[in-house]
Amino acid sequence: MRWGMVIDLFKCTGCGACAVACKRENATPPGVFWSRVHIYETGTYPNARLHSLPTLCMQCDEPPCEKACPTGATWVRAGGIVLVNNDQCIGCGYCTWACPYESRSLNHSDPRPYHPAYGFNPFEERGYISHSKGVVEKCTFCAPRIDRGDQPACVQTCPSRARVFGDLDDPESEVSRLIAEHDGLARMEEIGTRPKVFYLHLRERLTPEPPHKRPSPHKRPSPHK
Amino acid sequence: MSPDTTHTEAVRGEWKKVMCRLCGIKVWCTAQMYVEDGVILKVEGDPENPMNEGRLCARGQSAIMNVYNPYRVKAPMKRTNPKKGLDEDPGWVEISWDEALDTVAAKIRECRERDPRRFAHMFGFGGYGWIVTDGAFMPAVGSPNELRSHGHLCPVHFGAGMVQGTFLDKQDVEYCEYFLAVGGSLGPNIGSTHSMRATTKALERGMKLVVVDPRCSPEATLAQEWVPIRPGTDLAFTLALLHVMLHEHKVWDVDFLKRRTNAVYLIAEDGHYLTDPATGKPLVWDEAANRAAPFDDPTVRDYALHGTYEVAGESGDGGASGDGGASGDGGTSTGTTAFDLVRAQMLEYTPEWAEEVTAVSAATIRRLAREFVDHAHIGETITLDGFEFPFRPVVIKSERGALSNKAGAYQHLAAKMVAALVGALDVPGSYLASDAGPSLSPGPDGVVAPKAEAAGCDWSFPPSIDLKEFYPHRHTSPFLAWKAILDPEKYGIDYEIDALVTYAANPIMGSVNPDEAIEAFKRIPFIATIPLVYDEMSQFADILLPESVIVERHALIEFGHHVVQAADEAMLRVKGVLVQKPVIPPVYNTRQADDIYIELAERVGILHGPGGVNDRLNQQLDLAGEYALDLDATYTTPEIMDRILRCRYGDDHSLDWFDDHAVYPKMLSPKEAYNFYYHPWGATRYPIYFERLLASGERLKRNLEEVGLDTIPGQDAADVWLHYQPVPRWCPRPDEEAAAEFDLLAINWSTPQWRMSAGDQVGNVWVQEFVEVNDPYEYRILINGATAREKGFSDGDEVIVEAWHGGWTRGRLKLTELIFPEALGFPSNHGFKSRQRNPITHRGPHYNELLTGDERAIDPVSAGIDRAPRVRIYRADAPPPAAAPPAGSGLGAAAPGSAASGPAASGPAASGPAAPGAATSWAHQPGGAR
Fold first, then answer.
1. What is the pLDDT of residue A217?
2. How far is B596 from B35, CA to CA, in rounded Å?
3. A140 vs B contacts (CB less than 8 Å)
């Protein structure tokens, strides 16, 4: 069992539902994002295009963060999910430097409320407990949700179904099939991190060429007679 | 340890179903919330809902912060500082609900005793749903002055009502093969959960999407083709498509035009239908029999699509509209087919002409017109549930970006004509009426009877305070109310407004001419508002009656017809009802709007008896028999909801059923989703020649003449009647006379995170933070890189943007390649101005300041606002260049640098409390995601 995610960049429209769902699910305090959507452009008018690139922890099979961690706080759970043990984390921040995907953040202070003048609201009071000062945090693939059979919050909510989650070890799983059929790519594969988050149409989103070359549509049989 | 930072789900918590409603209207998502000890800890989409299928957008996911928003109004308040203004501290003092309601009720009673028209009510998109406010309260008061703050920036109803007999239109992307989006989003632009699904699904299937837009939007990126167009010229593009189709490509759906449109009707020289003297029915020419016949004569063998014919003894009295028309006097009349007249009108709109106007190359226009026709599968059919439909899988969608224009009504009609020429209306794959059902029922002339805005409002004089009688096809016109309040005599109004109650309306931010709105509000002696937060309207209110947020209240909304974007099969088939019960008690001392209106009605003395609110609700909601409200009883909102539900959906779907559900969907069969099914061949005809528009203009002209007016006050007569012609035509833009320095065109668009300001989403910290951290365009003013360099501007420069009519705003430039070189782009609408608001809402430019509701600038038919005004920019820290004064006429805000109210005199943020960037910011702080 290796949990993995596929993000189809021809379905992502940059709405941000994933990033806000992550914030809500994990109650991340102000300034902390486990899930982001980078919005940017490529090309020159009129051949320019607006892009969105969702990012999260790439859940590497060879995680540089784990190697950089001096205390063993970063560890790999069953299913290949990279986690941080708050009790062992000393806040040195080496892992944040080691991660080539900038997916980790070090809490320099205890969580602050979104509206400092009004204090913590009831949601924040309950949700910020584990986001304490001096630890590093990051995406967990929503491990608690997976354990009870749900999908990660970002996958569950994606309105355009750009995200798919499943077992990379199972060649019949949708993630495996999508990666195989659509030439799924991981970011910076060349540095040997072996991420478990794969993107479809990544090249088109990163090059200045307008994405005219669409995948050959698997057209269904014509419904008319 | 596994860093389970999520809340532990103790057994005491429970999941509850709710509506979402955080986008305003037309998106029918429901959610489920996990509540523990009265605190909402989780929100997810509701898997029971066929619309959102368990998904939620960024707004819906942020609902928790909407509830626990400390900037909400937390109790009823009264003002102690009589000075009203955006920068004034109203000196709010908390009062009891009794005192607040009694104060407001007394003012309404005073108005009713003197003259009910002196009471006005205003309502907008900011609310969560309503029962009592819509159509029951004001009729019971007896005042016609029901204002709406929304809608005029998006005049989408006239064309839909005129051609397809519905309130809106939608697009079938379940079958569509070629989608031409002209100034309208398929859904991604506004973050609609289900339209995003439908759109990406269709693209994956291979639907070809072409986006004609001055800006490369998210869906333009996903499209096969982005066609940049000069802002405000979509009509020229569409007319040129018609030219190519009618004069060059010459392929159209002959059968459809002959049997399903009024293209074959004979038109007299006065522009009206030639009619049969015996029946009054419009005449067609039977080519086989070489004779004229009523349009529905079953013996007609072949309708003439072309030609001019001499018809003996025809009355030509104006057809079913009954207006004007040639007087035949028993002699002969000449009639030309409507189709020939349409063709003749389009002759001049060559692609070469359009290229000059739109900057879209003539070759591109020709190619797109041909592609559209070639993908239409003319002559093919598709069978659904054993019912055979024409199969026309092409859509030309024209919406807000193209319709918010001085000739926006024509643009809407022209886009429908493009679809009609290939028969792509209300059949699988095409441009559909928003309401599945018998919307295409014809009038006496055999043509789809106009509905809603296209039907027009009745004439009365003096007019209502928003002048709707002068603009009978308008959707809303609050900006005209401000003019009428400030100068009632000009419009023949012989009274003043003494009291105003507003709900979910914020015209200072969401409409045009905010300075005029402010002056009008200062003129009204008493204003009460039902706010969620201390918004701009609250700064002018005397009493605040705070509303609960959606999860603290009841709500009921029937849906199934307000889908305005791309729709897949599930969306096309679903109808039903959304119901909301409170999942937590109100966090603050607030009530829901319906309860407030019931309380007010009781205290005013208009709740009970014939003509009271209960009576009006019975009529409006069709509550009869055991479900009818007792006219003399006082009901709570949930009691009324329960009756509505049991009356419409049966006793097994009473309010109790919704303890565990938020949606009761009723699925249509596939064929029932297409209105062709209800009105098949022979049952109706679409207009492609708009005789009704001509007749409506003539009716308006006569009405005006009867009260001694030769035109709509403030309008040039010739200009008005130019827009009431039966065939769309190019019209001069309102700012053509503006000085040459106004060399850019300002546009804006909805962004996926914000829409219609419902629930104070602009002040939602999660959404705001997401945008600030991830989106480099929001809050900025987008300018094409080459244009900026030519003008000497760099990324991040702070500039004043000044419109030709004097309105202005300020903001920081963002250089981009994503926008037409002459356009200046504003994502969404920012720069909120109430000093008591959440300061994060103050940042960014206020685009709507650049628009004007001056009569000469609006569409005389739809009263739509032109949303591509000519503007100029200059550095905020430099004096404005010595230029000719704006060609405007003292409308809206004073010109920057002129007189006392411009930025030079009173500081850059004269009209707002916070300069851009001054608001607190949490982004980019240490410890944030790197």
1. 38
2. 27
3. 2-5
Distance (Å, rounded) from C-alpha B735 to C-alpha B871?
10
> Would the CB atoms of B6 and A39 count as touching at under 8 Å?
no
Q: Kindly report, residue by residue over B452-499, the tens digit of the pLDDT.
A: 899 999 999 999 999 999 999 999 999 999 999 999 999 999 999 999
Amino acid symbol at B145? N
Inter-chain residue contact B928 with A115, CB threshold 8 Å: no
How close B173 comes to chain A (CA, Å)? 13
Among the listed ranges B192-196, B498-502, B859-863, which one has the minimum average pLDDT value?
B192-196
What are A92-99's contacts with CB under 8 Å, separation 24+?
A: A93/A136, A94/A68, A94/A69, A94/A70, A95/A65, A95/A66, A95/A68, A95/A69, A95/A136, A96/A65, A96/A136, A96/B930, A97/A68, A98/A64, A98/A65, A98/A67, A98/A68, A99/A64, A99/A65
Helix, strand, coil shares of chain A, percent, nearest 5, are 25, 20, 60
Distance CA(B704)–CA(B682), nearest Å, equals: 38
Third-level CATH fold of B161-462:
Dimethylsulfoxide Reductase; domain 2 (3.40.228)
Q: Out of A48, A85, A108, whose CB is closest to B216?
A: A48
B818 neighbourhood in chain A, CB within 8 Å: 41, 45, 48-50
Contact B427, B676 (CB under 8 A): yes
Q: Which residue has the tokens 């999908």?
A: A151
Nearest residue to B59 (alpha-carbon basis) of B186, B190, B184: B190
Determine the Cα–Cα distance for residues B837 and B832; give it in Å rounded to an integer: 8
Q: Which residues of B touch A153 (CB under 8 A)?
A: 44
Structural domain boundaries, residue A191 = 3-206
Q: Which two tokens stand for residue B452?
A: 């809603």
Note whether residue A212 is domain-resident.
Answer: no
Q: In this predicted structure, what is the pLDDT of residue B11? A: 54
Model confidence at B899: pLDDT above 60 = no
Q: What does the mean pLDDT of chain B come to? A: 90
Q: What is the C-alpha to C-alpha distance for residues A192 and A62, in angstroms, rounded to an integer?
A: 7
Number of domains composing chain A: 1
Model confidence at B909, in pLDDT bands (50, 70, 90)? Answer: very low
Q: Which of B818, B806, B741 has its CA nearest to residue B777?
A: B818
pLDDT digit string, tens, across residues A177-195: 999 999 999 999 899 999 9
Give the per-residue pLDDT at A212: 42
Both tokens of B680, joined, read 């098949």
Other beta carbons within 10 Å of B80? 10
Would you say residue B157 has pLDDT above 80? yes
User: Cα–Cα distance between B395 and B672 in angstroms, integer?
Assistant: 20
CATH of the domain at A38: 3.30.70.20
- Domain range summary for chain B, segments of one domain joined by +: 161-462, 744-906
Three-state DSSP state, B202: helix
In the sheet that B499-503 helps form, which strands lie side by side, from edge to edge?
Answer: B93-94, B77-78, B543-544, B526-530, B499-503, B119-123, B146-148
> Residue A25: its chain B contacts at CB < 8 A?
6, 42
Least confident of A163-167, B147-151, B922-926: B922-926
Quick count: other Cβ atoms within 10 Å of Cβ B153?
20
Please give the Cα distance from B391 to B381 (Å, whole number): 5
Architecture category of domain B744-906 in CATH: Beta Barrel (2.40)
pLDDT per residue over B806-817, tens digit each? 999 999 999 999
* Distance between CA atoms of residues B693 and B713, nearest Å: 20
